[in-house]
Each structure stands twice: as structure tokens, then as C-alpha cells.
Amino acid sequence: MEKKEFETILAYVETFFSQSGAHGLDHILRVTRLSQEIGVAEGADMRVLIPAALFHDIARPLEEESGIPHEQEGARIAEEYLRQAGYDAARITAITHAIRTHRFSTGPEPETLEAKILSDADKLDAMGAVGIARTFMRAGEHGDGIEGAVSHIHEKLLKLQGLMYTAGAKEIAEQRHALLQRFADSLEDETGA
């Protein structure tokens, strides 16, 4: 993917994010970087993978007010934008598939390499040190305390390692899971939970 094309899409995506948060623009940029790292190693089509990563959470800010799942609305927004930009129809289909299937807790399973990589990268950003930081941001956003964050770690994050599709993601997940587990154990010791 050309630098100018990347910057143009990123500038458009940025217009949807007025504030930071657990699913803010910084999350999108980390997922894009992880997607690129894994995608290069796995031989992915970067003209599918990188736009999918940039668009994957574009509708997160709209989900709460509209009630439309962000993966569905995000795929619609990406398709509309990419058609107007003259993107190849086959690639648009692959990009929207990756966006629709990136959310591990809902929806259909990713079927393409690019969709699997995006799903892996999104899950990886919920693990390790960044995942811990995002968990507490999320808890604050939802009015939860430490107990809510601990619950989220146990109910979701500690299960992510076993859900990776690609070899590269499995390697990264192993390290991030170990850190997450050490943190969860220490937090339980300190809080007596």
C-alpha cells in the first residue's frame, strides 16, 4: 500500500474520533502496525489488510448511539469510502469481510488470511501491557472499578491466547499472555480477590 493512500485513508478515519478511549485512534494504529508485522510474515495482501485494519473500529464511536454493531457499520462505511476512491471491487469485498469478522465475540468466522490476521491483531491489542491499560480505561468508561476490570481480564482476556489463527500472532500472544497472567495473579494477591 502506498504511503499517500495510507495517509488519505487515515485522515478520513481520524474524523470519526473526537476523543481517546479503549477503542480510540491509538488502538487502530496499534492494530494496523500489528497487522502489518504479521501480514508481511504471512504473505498477506497488504492492499486488503491495511485498509481493513484502519477501518476496523471506525464505527465504534457510533455503536452506542445507533445500536448497530460497529463491525457491520464499519464495513458499510469502508465500502462506501473505497468505492468512491476507485478501489478494486474484489479487494473491497475482502476488506469488508475482514472488518465484519474481526470481532471475536460475535459474528461469522474470518475466512481469508487477511481477515484472520486482522482478528489476531485486534485480540493481541487486548493482551499484554497495552491490554491491561485498555482494560482499566474501559472499566472507567463503563463506570466499573477494579473488580470490573479483573472480571474482564478473567472472562475475556486470559482466553484470547488460544483463539489466534496465525503463527506470528501465536508467538506474540504467548509473551503477552504471560505478562497478563502475572499481572492478574499479582492483582489478586494485592486485593485479596
Describe the overall structure.
The protein is mainly alpha-helical. Helices cover about 70% and strands about 0% of the residues. It has 2 domains: about 1-110, Hypothetical protein af1432, CATH 1.10.3210; about 125-193, Methane Monooxygenase Hydroxylase, Chain G, domain 1. The protein contains 10 helices and no strands. Helix 1 runs parallel beside helix 3, helix 2 packs antiparallel against helix 3 (about 45-55) and helix 7 (about 115-125) runs parallel beside helix 10 (about 165-190). It is globular. This is HD domain-containing protein. Pfam families: HD (PF01966).
Average pLDDT confidence is 92
Percent in helix: 55-70%
In terms of DSSP E residues, the strand content is under 5%
Largest beta-sheet characterization: none
Shape: globular
Low-confidence stretches: none
Note the gap between the termini: 48 Å
The CATH superfamily of the largest domain is Hypothetical protein af1432
Gross CATH architecture of the largest domain: Orthogonal Bundle
Helix/strand order, N-terminal first: HHHHHHHHHH
Number of strands: 0
- Which structural category fits the helices and strands? mainly alpha
Write the CATH fold name of the largest domain: Hypothetical protein af1432
In the CATH scheme, the class of the largest domain would be Mainly Alpha
Question: How much is the radius of gyration in Å?
Answer: 17 Å
Protein name: HD domain-containing protein
Organism: Methanochimaera problematica
Pfam family, one: HD
Domain HD: 24-127
